[in-house]
Design brief:
By secondary structure, this protein is of the alpha/beta class. The protein folds into two domains: 55 residues, no CATH class; 311 residues, TIM Barrel (Alpha-Beta Barrel). Helix content is 47%, strand content 12%. The protein is built from 19 helices and 20 strands. The strands form six sheets. An eight-stranded parallel sheet has the order 5-18-17-14-13-10-9-8. The radius of gyration is 25 Å and the shape is globular. It starts with a helix and ends in a 5-residue tail after the last helix.
């Protein structure tokens, strides 16, 4: 090849590369749902030790506070009462229930493009939380969360591809009535996104009217249960080792209406659970198993997410600690234990203790989201937006976390190795020829296929950054949030149906 042809080849390739870079990548290099499990903080022997201890706890220590209906059903199915009147489950009973439990199910979006299968070791990140404060876009200080905040968070998340489902992230403190709070929370989710969603119910009596609303939105009586697009977040256990009657009632009501259950166990290290890492995992795993038993006694094989969320407190102050290495490894271990018994797993990550959108926030969120993602947890909750040890939620954090999750997904995806991608002949041509890879066609293909390019993360050189306004990540995210909220105003409820719903219920938005 003569020099003129070399220049033409380099120029043409560079023009093609620049043109291609101006468009979104044809292939997402960091898609949701990669297979995790690369990070295993527990050895197989340790997993078995913890499992055996949990089984022993259920058989010998048992569960307190069991409602009468649960006690009656459990005794019919082989449970016993110990000398303290606590409900005890034998190893055989628990393992029979594990064997018959739901191993996977489809969590539907109202638009099927958002549906995904929960189970195995495929990893999806979504939201959680019940923050009572919101980081204000203008003042950058916390204020009480409102119903309008919830609506705005929902439509913001509707645009964020790495957040696979939206569980209400804040409590509307301006809706004091318990039923109206549950109702308007669910309505906000329905109106502003077609992704799968999650909500909670304060009382079992609230489930039926809200499920009626879901049926109406799905097309008629019983239609919601055919393709459920909302799951219920329920905490039926209070640590250490006690059932909660109100949560039991909610669970039974959800089962009757076909609402999948996310059974959340949130023990606190050194307070409601042992401070030792392995002891806490054993205790919280036992409690989550007790919830599994409860659900399956009444509805064998019912879709339930095994959400063991071991939480940490700072023993210096007694306050909840959402960020750091300990909560990261605990939740990764919880995922490993759930995967060991083959159940749909849920854990919590990214619950930064930071109050501002700062370096502490980024450090804590990256640590925990990566640990939980690599552990192979099916559903990683709290992964976006949550601040101030779950007391607060931030608009800007949602955008930055969505971008962070692309990096996390990319790391979970790992490295593919093949003769083609090893590219020995390309290396031969370059090393013996022009001495760089910029003009090679494989370069553009690989940079599109294997590399993620951030939008909010800054990669400018210092002078250009200064000339562009010297914005930090918080400022860039704040500007983009405002643009999204100004332009993205969906209404996913048909107008005539909306009128009927407003005639029946006190809809406040």
């Amino acid at each position: 090849m003569n020099e003129q042809k070399r220049r033409r080849r380099r120029g043409g390739s560079r023009e093609a590369m620049l043109a291609k870079r101006s468009n979104p990548p044809a292939i997402n290099p960091a898609p949701a749902g990669p297979v995790g499990g690369q990070y295993r903080p527990l050895t197989d022997t340790q997993v078995q030790q913890i499992y055996d201890t949990s089984i022993r706890m259920l058989a010998e220590l048992g569960m307190g506070g069991a409602p009468a209906a649960l006690t009656e059903k459990a005794l019919e199915c082989g449970a016993t009462l110990n000398d303290l009147g606590r409900l005890c489950y034998s190893r055989d009973m628990v393992e029979d229930i594990i064997d018959g439990a739901c191993k996977s199910f489809v969590f539907h979006g109202r638009d099927e493009q958002y549906s995904f299968e929960v189970g195995g070791e495929r990893v999806y990140f979504g939201t959680g939380g019940a923050a009572v404060q919101t980081l204000d876009l203008d003042s950058h200080l916390y204020r009480p969360s409102t119903l309008q905040d919830l609506a705005d968070f929902t439509r913001l998340v509707d645009t964020l591809p790495n957040i696979s489902w939206f569980t209400r992230c804040c409590v509307a403190t301006d809706v004091p009535d318990a039923f109206e709070l549950d109702l308007n929370t669910a309505y906000c989710l329905m109106r502003n996104t077609q992704k799968p969603v999650g909500t909670s119910f304060i009382l079992g009596a609230h489930v039926d009217p809200i499920a009626d609303m879901f049926d109406a939105i799905a097309g008629g009586p019983g239609k919601f249960a055919e393709k459920p697009f909302c799951k219920a977040h329920i905490s039926p256990i209070i640590s250490p080792m006690r059932y909660i009657e109100d949560a039991f009632d909610v669970t039974m009501a959800c089962i009757r209406r076909g609402i999948p259950v996310n059974s959340v166990n949130a023990a606190m290290s050194g307070a409601t659970s042992p401070a030792t890492i392995d002891g806490m995992l054993a205790a919280s795993f036992a409690e989550t198993l007790a919830a599994l038993v409860m659900v399956n006694l009444f509805a064998p094989g019912y879709p339930m997410i095994f959400s063991n969320w071991p939480f940490v407190i700072d023993l210096r102050t007694g306050s909840f600690c959402g960020g750091g290495g300990e909560v990261s490894i605990l939740n990764a271990g919880a995922a490993q234990l759930a995967n060991h018994i083959g159940l749909p797993s849920g854990v919590a990550s990214s619950m930064s203790d930071a109050k501002a959108v700062d370096a502490q926030m980024g450090m804590e969120k990256a640590l925990s989201s990566l640990a939980c993602g690599l552990s192979g947890a099916n559903m990683v909750y709290e992964s976006s937006g949550m601040m101030a040890s779950l007391l607060g939620v931030s608009y800007e954090a949602f955008l930055l976390d969505n971008e962070m999750l692309s990096h996390v997904y990319r790391m979970i995806r790992g490295i593919e190795v093949s003769e083609e991608s090893l590219a020995f002949e390309t290396m031969r041509n370059v090393i013996t020829g022009e001495g760089h890879f910029l003009s090679e066609p494989e370069t553009i293909e690989a940079m599109e296929r294997d590399y993620f390019y951030p939008k909010l993360g800054d990669r400018l050189e210092p002078a250009t950054w200064a000339e562009s306004g010297a914005e930090d990540a918080w400022q860039r995210a704040n500007r983009e949030v405002r643009e999204v909220l100004a332009s993205h105003r969906p209404n996913y409820i048909d107008a005539s149906l909306d009128t009927k719903l407003r005639g029946r219920f006190n809809i406040k938005t």
